[in-house]
Amino acid sequence: VKTSAGLLLIVINDVLDFSKIEAGRLDLDPVPFHLRENLEESVKALALHAHQKHLELVCDVKAEVPDFVIGDPTRLRQLVTNLVGNAIKFTEYGEVTLEAALGAQTDDGLVLHFIVRDTGIGIPADKQKLIFEPFSQADGSTTRRFGGTGLGLTISKRLVEMMGGEIWVESEPGKGSSFHFTARMNAGEAPLAHVDQEISLAGMPVLIVDDNFTNRRVLTDMLCLWKMTPASAVDVPEALSLLRRADKLGKPFSLVLSDVHMPGMDGFDLARMIRDSPNLSQTVIMMLTSGEQRDDPARCRELGISNYVLKPVRRADLRKAIVNALATRCEKAGAVNPALPASNQLPRRNRSGVSLRILLAEDNTVNQRVAMRLLEQQGHTVVVAANGRETLKTLDEQRFDLILMDVQMPEMDGLEASAKIRLKEKGGNGHIPIIAMTAHAMTGDRERCIAAGMDDYMSKPVNVRTLMTLLEKYGAHPVTAG
């Protein structure tokens, strides 16, 4: 049901977007945003489909590309989703890569160059212009086999033109395709929330083990950004050889980043051999997995593997996982990490789960059940209110750590209820975090929610990662604990 509904939604959205473009009613909404996160999250959303086809999916943002830019993040995400989604659809084996590079930097801003490469079926030369026309695909048999509205590339072309860029394709039948597009944006500044004192990982020797060349190159670039010292191996025998040689030279690797799924011996075989080797057993091991095997996390725990990261690897996720893995090893050892200078030792972390009392203000029964199941699986206690009036009444009777507030509800909506809650708090009743939930992810919605007194905002259908991130952010100090 979910898949069918999702496919229908794609068709409807494509037709609506095409209609808006044809009528000249589609405008860009330039705002400051984190470019790398936007691209990584866009690719990550397509990872399940790629991994089900056993494809490598890689997001390669070059070091010279600024993290923060001013542009339309929603339309950029739409472009990337269209192109990467198409690449996955038309690729049966191999890999799909999104690459972002700085094309030029002028007084008027930046020109960014994006490339989506695949190892798929390719496109004949006489069809390469046709695919950008409305309701067209390369040929009739392709349409029947792969489906689609034939509007995705047309919409992508119009969006690129609105961004002051151009789009083109390089392809050869049987040898894959490379879709290029450029976009003009302005450089942005990092908000204060993103400026933090990062722990230095400089000088730490790391071994990357992956049979895929693109993955090794992208991971090497990431580690070099943090001034780590990476080396790489294409399989388990080469990795063991490098580990033993480094140990004999008195310069052991502090960390091993290994792909799980490799031909011959896999990442778990490597982990087992490292654990069985007295001279190597203290090496911190992290796994990179596509998540296609449900028992991967359990096998990681059995082998004492410090952490695992889902592919395609996001830079922020990788750094956080490395820091956590090293911190965990230090805590278990009860000592400082010898791989880091004393000034850079990692702080001990509170790893105990926090159970929150959450008030869910939502009138839709299905949404209530889904949200309750998600929250209860994380160990939280949930009380439901069907509208704004019930929310206020429940708050008078019970204490909560956080409110998830639907915006559109009968009798009293979420905006009015939030305003009344904030008015009551002026009498000295503290401050309870309120997170808005709305299906209307339109320009100005966030501002209206914040103006009504809400703390943050997320669109429906609820993204699990976004929800957990917000709970962690606003539920760090529960008032009902104990």
Strand content: 15-25%
Count every beta strand, where a strand is a DSSP E run of 2 or more residues: 17
| Largest sheet composition | 7 strands, mixed
Q: Structural class given helices, strands, pairing?
A: alpha/beta
The residue-averaged pLDDT reads 82
> How helix-rich are the residues, as a percent range?
25-40%
The Rg value, from CA coordinates, equals 25 Å
Unreliable spans are 140-147, 192-197, 334-352
Oligomeric state, counting identical vs distinct chains? single chain
Tell me the span between the first and last alpha carbons. 42 Å
Shape: globular
- Number of distinct helices: 16
Q: Can you describe this structure?
A:
The protein has 482 residues and is an alpha/beta fold. 39% of the residues lie in helices and 21% in strands. The protein has 16 helices and 17 strands. The protein has helices at 2-22, 35-44, 47-52, 73-89, 140-146, 152-162, 213-225, 236-248, 267-275, 296-302, 315-333, 365-377, 388-397, 414-425, 445-451, 464-474, and strands spanning 31-34, 56-61, 68-71, 95-106, 109-118, 167-171, 177-187, 205-209, 229-233, 255-259, 284-289, 307-310, 357-361, 381-385, 402-406, 434-438, 456-459. Strands 1, 2, 3, 4, 5, 6 and 7 form a seven-stranded mixed sheet that branches. Strands 9-8-10-11-12 form a five-stranded parallel sheet, sandwiched between helices. A five-stranded parallel sheet has the order 14-13-15-16-17, sandwiched between helices. α10 links the parallel β11 (284-289) and β12 (307-310). The longest helix is centred in the first third of the chain and has 21 residues, at 2-22. The two termini are 42 Å apart. Residues 140-147, 192-197 and 334-352 have low confidence and may be disordered.
